[in-house]
Amino acid sequence: MKSINLVCFTILFFISSNSIFGQHKIYGGFKLTSNYSVFTEKVQEWKSRLGYGFGYFEVMELDYPVNLQAEINFTTNTFINKTSFGTQSVKITNNYHSFEIPLLAKYRINDHFSFGIGYQFSIGSSGKSKTVLDNNGNQSKSSTNLTGINTSGFLFDANHSSEKTMFGFRIIRTNDNFIDPFKSINASVFFGFKLF
After folding, report:
1. Which of 65, 98, 109, 183 has the fewest CB atoms within 10 Å, i.e. the most exposed one?
2. Buried b / exposed e along 156-183 (16+ C-beta atoms within 10 A)
3. What does pTM read for this prediction?
4. How many C-beta atoms surround the C-beta of residue 135 within 10 A?
5. Is 123 helix (H, G, I), strand (E, B) or coil?
6. Cα(164)–Cα(172) distance, integer angstroms
7. pLDDT at residue 19 in the model
8. In sequence order, what are the residues at sequence separation of 6 or more whose Cβ sits closer than 8 angstroms to the Cβ of residue 78?
9. What are phi and psi of 16, to 5 degrees?
């Protein structure tokens, strides 16, 4: 509950920041991401697949060389586990979906390049686990809902921006176990288009 209150407070701060910091330049737009996760421990059975995301970002340029950036993104992550027991093969696919709110402080090296650090909050996370059993050509499928997923964590960001576009790379270290008992590091590349 405390993290939800903190998220709400932060969102209200950024919404009201235009009037508080009206003398500073603000720009925003839409972004697309492609992500891939790796585990912090050696995990033989689980493999990550490419995920995707899309969202909205807004940047406030403070006194040079510092920016503040807030986003709200919808993100998916996929993990697959393939095992076999004698003549029976098992394939488990976990798909995770979440709304993520990254908040960053960014240091501008020049007008085009910047590095940032921040924290990402995860809300409304859910997912589905799909299991396919294949025993000598006889397949059976089942699925279950996944809850309690948390992709919150600290992040590092590097990006290049031009007049209308933004391209970058981000790494997020999750706080909680993504697939029990393993934590993950999520790497993503993103492309943003500035609307104003």
Report:
1. 109
2. ebebebeeeebebebebebeeebbeebb
3. 0.80
4. 13
5. strand
6. 26
7. 47
8. 48, 49, 50, 51, 93, 94, 95, 96
9. -85, -5
At a CB cut-off of 8 Å and minimum separation 6, what does 22 contact?
Answer: none
Q: Which of 60, 11, 34 is nearest to 196 (CA)?
A: 60
* Six-digit token string for 139: 């397949």
- Averaged pLDDT in 10-residue chunks for the chain of 196 residues: 53 51 80 85 74 95 86 92 82 89 93 94 87 84 82 92 94 74 81 95
Distance in angstroms (rounded) separating the CA atoms of residues 27 and 19 = 14
Q: Three-class SS string for 3-63?
A: HHHHHHHHHHHHHHHHHHCCCCEEEEEEEEEEEEEEECCCCCCEEEECEEEEEEEEEEECC
